[in-house]
Write a structure and sequence with these properties.
Blueprint lengths: L16 H4 L5 H20 L4 H8 L3 H8 L8 H10 L4 E4 L10 E7 L2 E4 L7 E5 L10
Parallel strand pairs: 2-4
Antiparallel strand pairs: 1-4, 2-3
Helix pairs in contact: 2-5, 3-4
Length: about 140
């Protein structure tokens, strides 16, 4: 039996797949994806069922299901930050002068009281989740 090898052409990302795909507002979409990932991690760490997470976030279970599949959809950055605060996290936006002509966006999650830097994008905004994760309620 002979196996055929097909080569595919790939190119390295510029660090923002949304920009690479030519989608509108790529910085915002990448930020939403990173915030959604933090929400996903918090829900998983607390072992919350989607219905319970929905009650905490103030949305219906299908919306939680979409978030758990990294589908921020029509949720704004502000609404995603509201979800983080509902999950017991502080969200901080700090603006400072950029080192380069164009600034960068960082999503920083705190694990065990030490910041963990996520991938930088662009714009001069830093989001910082500061509070340690509360324990999941025992049902």
């Amino acid at each position: 039996m002979r196996t055929e090898i097909h080569r595919i052409q790939a190119e390295r990302s510029r660090s923002n797949v949304f920009a690479d795909l030519g989608l509108p507002h790529p910085e915002r979409e990448l930020l939403k994806a990173k915030l959604t990932l933090e929400i996903y991690r918090l829900i998983r760490k607390r072992n919350l069922r989607q219905a319970k997470a929905g009650k905490i976030l103030g949305v219906k279970q299908p919306h939680v299901s979409a978030l758990m599949r990294n589908r921020a959809g029509s949720f704004s950055v502000e609404r995603l930050m509201d979800f983080l605060t509902a999950l017991g996290q502080d969200a901080e936006i700090s603006i400072k002068p950029a080192r380069e002509r164009r600034g960068e966006v960082y999503v920083v999650g705190v694990r065990n009281h030490r910041p963990v830097l996520r991938d930088p994008t662009s714009q001069a905004v830093k989001l910082l989740a500061k509070r340690p994760l509360p324990q999941a309620p025992v049902s």
